[in-house]
Every structure is written in structure tokens, then in C-alpha cells.
Amino acid sequence: MSEKASSSENIVSQKYDRCLADLLVKAGVGFSVGVVASVIAFRRRTWPIALSTGFGIGAAYADCDRSFNPARVSGTRIISQTDENK
Questions:
Q1: Which residues cross the membrane (predicted)?
Q2: Could you tell me how far CA 24 lies from the centroid of its own chain?
């Protein structure tokens, strides 16, 4: 049996699902680190929580951007159809 080819809609849907899961995980980790840092080092201030949650969201955004735009990854070369035949 041959596997059914994935449609472009399914591929995009899977990328969005991965991006959303990555966002939730990294924002959650950033929030947790911010809470711990706020309690231990910064006398219960709120800015460490906001800062570390923002770092997590930014990292997830960068990963998602690389997932949808592979040409932005340094060292990646896009080969066109005409280059493969040479």
C-alpha cells in the first residue's frame, strides 16, 4: 500500500498546530521562570514575569517563523527545479 499524499492544507494545519503547542510550552516555561525569579530575587515584582514570558513568546515566534519560511534559516539554500537537472 502506498501512503496517501498530504495535501497542502494538512501540512499548513500541522505547522500551525506545532506552532501553537510550542507557543504554549515556551510561554509557560517563561512564566514559570519569571514567577520563581520574582519570588526569589526581585521581591515579588511583576516585571520578571512579563519579561520572561515575553522571551518565551519571542522564541516560539522565531521557531514558527523558521517553520513557515525556511529560506530565513542561515545556511539554507533553496534549489529551483532547473538547478536540479544540471
A1: 23-42
A2: 10
